[in-house]
Amino acid sequence: MQTVVEKGSSERLVMVRYGELFLKSEPVKHHFIGLLLRNIGKALSASGLHSHSETPRGRILIFGNEPEKIADIVSRIFGIIDVSICTKTSSHIDDLCAGAIALASARLSAGMSFAVRAKRQQKTGLDSQVLGARIGSAIYEHIPGLIVDLDHPDYEVFVEVRDFGGLVYDSRITAPGGLPSGTQGRTLVLLSSGIDSPVASWLAMKRGCECTHLHLDGGRWAGSDVKTAAIENHKRLSRWCAGNPLMLVIANSEPLYDRMQEFHIPPRYRCVICKRFMLQVAARLMEHEGASAIITGENLGQVASQTLANLSVISDGVTVPVLRPLITYDKEEIITIARRIGTFDTHPGDLACRAVPRMPATAAILEAILECEQKIDIDTIITQACTELQYVTALNSEIVQGT
Ligand code: ATP
Ligand code: MG
Question: Mutate which of 190, 276, 323 to test ligand 1's pocket (most atoms within 8 Å of Cβ)?
Answer without folding.
Answer: 190
